Amino acid sequence: MIKDVYYVPESLRREFSEHELAEFREQFQAFDTSGDGGVDADELAAMMALLDIHMERRELVDLVAVVDADGSGQIEFHEFVRMMSNLRRGQSTKLSKFIQMSKQAFEIREECRDLQTTPVVGCRANDKRERTCGNGACRSTARRHRRTKEPRFTSTSSLFGRDYPYEPPTVVLHTRIYHVNFIMLVDGTAPTEWLSALWTPDWRARSLIERLQHLLQTPEPDLMVPIYNARDVPPTIGTTARSFGIDCFNQYVEAPEAFARHARDLVRRQTEA
């Protein structure tokens, strides 16, 4: 009789929907690189290495042992599902927390990979994973200034945190431009305080880049009104930069031709630098 490596006891199966069980199976298969129906310390180490996490083998063996109820030396699928059941009940372990984090990290990596293989028109993206940047980072370069003859590009980085996609990533512009929606700081970067007002959990990295690309070409001053009307200055901007941003906003609204000249001069200086 052939053993079903994805067997889950009925009492445990009732706790989850078929969709959730299918997701668990997909996660488990990502760890079970040998395809033998179990995840051992070596496979766990390999998966952690992909996320730039490195642990001593003894610690990895101990992590497996906590979940390995039958002492086989590896985590079988039903034990994996039991671990996720305990996590749902608030009984987390270091391994279950890593599994939860890795799911999100792999999804972000797939989004970045999709942007590399099928890029947004006029853009290119690179995966810049760093352990200090939450669960992932993606740097994108977008074409802008469609009315100029020569190509102009801007560079942005998106740092994805643990609450993504329910909270927006931290997006920073790294190219000095004079733009009503990007308040330049002394270090030459610009935060995107308005993003939280637009973000929905349905957005992904692709929709974010498409929105940034559109905004670079078609400014939206209304997005800045709540920021400038707020009583408190956002800590990512500061009082001085906010004052500069308000001047930029007023010039864009009241003297668009002067604004355009200033923007072109800044682009020219940056190109010649």
From TrEMBL:
Q: Name one Pfam family in it.
A: UQ_con
InterPro entries membership: EF-hand-dom_pair, EF_Hand_1_Ca_BS, EF_hand_dom, SPT21, UBC, UBQ-conjugating_enzyme/RWD
SMART domains, per this entry?
A: EFh
Its ancestry begins with: Eukaryota, Sar, Stramenopiles, Oomycota, Saprolegniomycetes
Q: Which family does it belong to?
A: Belongs to the centrin family.
EF-hand domain residues are 19-54, 55-90
Q: What is this protein called?
A: Aste57867_17926 protein
Give start-end of the signal peptide: none
Q: Which PROSITE patterns does this one have?
A: EF_HAND_1 (PS00018), EF_HAND_2 (PS50222)
